[in-house]
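User: WYL domain-containing protein, Laspinema olomoucense D3b:
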Amino acid sequence: MIRKKDTITLSIPPGTKERLEEIADALKVRWGDRGSISGLLTAIAQGKFQLGQPLNLTSAQVQALQQAQRLLIDTGHIPQAQTLTSLLLDRGNLEAPLRLALQQLATQPNETWRRQVEEHIQNRQPFRVFYRNAQESDLVYTVRCAELPFREKRFYLEIWCEETEDIKNTDFPELIHNRCLRLDRIREIQPIAGEWRNGLDFIEVYLHFCGGLVKAYESKDSDISNEVIGEVRQVVRRVSNPFWLIREILPYGKKCQVVAPQAIRDRVKEEIHAIYQRYLEPDTLPHS
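Assistant: Predicted structure for WYL domain-containing protein:
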């Protein structure tokens, strides 16, 4: 039985027929070796293709979407970030540099590195990391222990490595084998033979919390002890990277004090003094 087909007559400007055939051919809707206009119209009616103007984005809108994409990646929501990237690449009216940047961001292997590291940690498998730091220097680390903590807004790779030559001076020689790496700066990971360590190096830091933090303080997995003594809460914590500890406690202001060791007390005092000095400088920027 031959299925009856409806026919329509179109009045179109010169050149439109050829353009429609080109669109059909690009979408692989063909009759023989040419694009099929009737096939294209049928596919549109069946919802196989969507019509619409490209997204004409302002620079502010582009920056907001890029920030949203980075936040999704940093917080581990990789599929959602890929969906947003695909939307921008498929429907966005993007300039060539921005399109290239989005394509590169979409293919960044952050999640791949994270899965590999998690597997190596679970299997207690040493590995070698090829890494490019913020100064564009290429480094290689032989990793005997690793962790994947979530710090502020993204996952980091914290490692114990054999190499120490890249650290010229340190106030914390006990931690000279520890490194904190960004996943998006990793170039390659290779498993190697050898022994796996039970943990990163650390120092014990004594913290005193007072005021409202005596009751409000929430214990961390790295806390060795946590007790109220008089009017303060004393916490002893394992610290593998003083940088992150200082960033955590500075917002507490006078309600948190580093009691020991002296090296971290000095580092906190230097940071507070630098902030104080900055506010002593005259404000040269216009303000209302």
